[in-house]
Write a structure and sequence with these properties.
By secondary structure, the chain is of the alpha/beta class. It has 14 helices and 19 strands.
Length: about 400
């Protein structure tokens, strides 16, 4: 697949180099296009070394007349030779120029000449992202189809600490995630058409007082990766998410919850319309039944609290699932397969995805995972260490096989 990579002038421009490498590792040829502002943050030489191609930096270079003529039509030639345009970071300025159809440099001129799909990954200061003008431009781009074969694909920015020191939405998503999104658009798999997947993600928070809570280290990245992969393969997705700073896929029906009880209610409310349930959330096991109205003050005295079990959502869904597929998750520190099989039997799951969270660099808070799939048939399948988005597709491959086997028995 031939990818044109537009790089805007923001601090996240350095991540575009990682994106170029990730695209090439997935078999893409990459032509980098740097705006004048982008060159203040990262040099064209970086992209030339990574892509083994001359980087485009200007619409009209100051060379001979013949070279100027050649360059002046390069945006037309490149538009005919490109399969997909990716812009990361897409700054507020670029979004505005794209929305208004301006063509003041090579990237914006190429954008107008290119009739194929465009992937935009915005990154900027939170206030700039939330500004009504930026949001209006985003909505305009999302609604506009023009002659594009599949329109604009906008990857919302993540939340977190930004380079400017503020915290909020505006971080460029992980380059591997952007690269996989590009591959999904260029080579779509529609093998989950007709499925409605109910996916839970992230942790829950159980209050101890108005300022303290019990939770765990789940980042939600595995569940969100599953949602992205399922949508890319044609499924409708209902994503029930605990409190995480991730941006959900725009196509997902997002339900935000905080406590285990809220997650239980959301899951059961959406169970009837689902064909597959994937419970990847790390639900807190205990909660405080009577939460104080005021902050509990620290004293020199020892303190103990009595906690009660939270609702067992997986077991409850297992009792009500009917012909639906139920996929559970098991985060263990030992006896991985045995504990996963125990959960599979006691919760009436069709498959349990198990991982050893004691291993460094995978599982909780990581971009990668390594899991064991434990099947009701007794089989086990290992998915080796890989980015969570790739693990998500591996899990869905086996969900698809389970669904086909289930249908053959009916």
């Amino acid at each position: 697949m031939r990818v044109a990579l537009g790089v805007g002038g923001g601090i996240a421009a350095y991540k575009a180099a990682e994106l170029a490498r990730a695209l090439m590792e997935r078999g893409c040829s990459v032509q980098a296009i740097l705006t004048a502002a982008a060159q203040h943050f990262i040099t064209p030489l970086t992209f030339a070394a990574l892509t083994q191609r001359k980087v485009i930096t200007s619409l009209f270079p100051a060379n001979s007349a013949e070279e100027i003529y050649s360059s002046s039509i390069d945006h037309i030639r490149l538009a005919q030779e490109t399969d997909i345009l990716v812009v990361a970071p897409a700054t507020a300025d670029l979004l505005a120029r794209f929305a208004q159809g301006l063509a003041s440099d090579f990237l914006t001129a190429f954008h107008l000449a290119f009739p194929g799909p465009v992937v935009l990954s915005p990154a900027m200061n939170t206030n700039m992202w939330l500004h009504p003008a930026t949001q209006a431009n985003i909505q305009l781009l999302r609604s506009r189809q023009l002659l594009r074969s599949r329109g604009y694909h906008i990857i919302p920015p993540d939340e977190g600490l930004l380079a400017c020191g503020t915290t909020g939405a505006g971080r460029l998503p992980d380059p591997i995630r952007i690269a996989q999104h590009v591959i999904d658009i260029g080579h779509p798999r529609r093998d989950l058409d007709g499925e409605t997947m109910l996916i839970t993600a992230g942790p829950t928070q159980e209050s101890l007082d108005p300022v303290r809570f019990i939770s765990n280290r789940s980042s939600g990245k595995m569940g969100y990766s599953l949602a992205e992969a399922a949508i890319a393969r044609g499924a409708k997705v209902v994503l029930v998410s605990g409190p995480v700073p991730l941006a959900a896929p725009p196509e997902a029906e997002l339900i935000r919850v905080r406590t285990a009880l809220e997650m239980r209610d959301a899951v059961l409310a959406n169970l009837p319309c689902s064909t597959v349930i994937i419970k990847s959330a790390a639900v807190a096991d205990y909660h405080l039944e009577n939460v104080p109205d005021q902050k509990v003050k620290k004293t020199a005295m020892r303190m103990s609290i009595e906690l009660s079990p939270t609702p067992d959502i997986l077991a409850e869904v297992g009792r009500q699932k009917g012909d639906r597929l139920l996929i559970g998750f098991a985060a263990e520190t030992q006896n991985l397969v045995a504990e996963a099989r125990r959960k599979l039997e006691t919760k009436n799951c069709d498959m349990v995805v198990a991982n050893l969270v004691s291993q460094q660099g995978i599982g909780f808070e990581s971009e990668e995972n390594e899991v064991m799939l434990v099947m009701r048939s007794g089989d086990t399948v290992k998915l080796d260490k890989a980015p969570k988005r790739r693990i998500a597709d591996g899990i869905l491959d086996h969900v698809l096989k389970l669904g086909l086997a289930l249908r053959e028995t009916h």
